[in-house]
TrEMBL record:
Coiled-coil parts of chain: none
Domain VOC stretches: 3-116
InterPro entries xrefs: Glyas_Bleomycin-R_OHBP_Dase, Glyoxalase_6, VOC_core
Species assigned in the record: Pendulispora rubella
The protein's name: VOC domain-containing protein
PANTHER family assigned: CONSERVED PROTEIN (PTHR35908:SF1), HYPOTHETICAL FUSION PROTEIN (PTHR35908)
Pfam family, one: Glyoxalase_6
Length: 117
């Protein structure tokens, strides 16, 4: 049996992205961490980890993978994430009744905030 242990995100500024993703998800960084890699984990120990890998990579749009983050209060979470440095992504093909909002982290890695209600 396989389980998802960690989802790896390539980043340019490891410290900035560590600050963003720990605040965004309420995760904690495993310390000490390497100068080029950090593992972020849920404080409860339950759920998938996020690993940040300092490695320049070419940005591809649309991305082949993205995170779907489920929110009990989508509007509040989107506003909170914007306060942390995330930005909304406008997409002309997004249906008017879509339950998701497309966003990017401070380095342009895309994710969706899903209305989990």
């Amino acid at each position: 049996m396989l389980t998802v242990g960690s989802i790896v995100i390539r980043v340019d500024d490891l410290e900035r992205q560590k600050v963003f993703w720990t605040a965004a998800l309420g995760y904690v960084a495993r310390e000490p961490h390497d100068p080029d890699f950090v593992l972020l984990k849920p404080p409860s120990g339950i759920g998938s980890n996020i690993s940040l890998d300092k490695m320049r990579s070419k940005r591809v749009l649309p991305p082949r993978l993205h995170l779907d983050l489920y929110a009990d209060d989508q509007a509040a979470e989107v506003a909170r994430l914007e306060g942390l440095g995330a930005m909304r992504v406008e997409w002309s093909k997004r249906p008017p009744d879509a339950d998701y909002i497309i966003m990017e982290d401070p380095e342009g890695n895309r994710f969706c905030v899903i209305d989990g209600r």
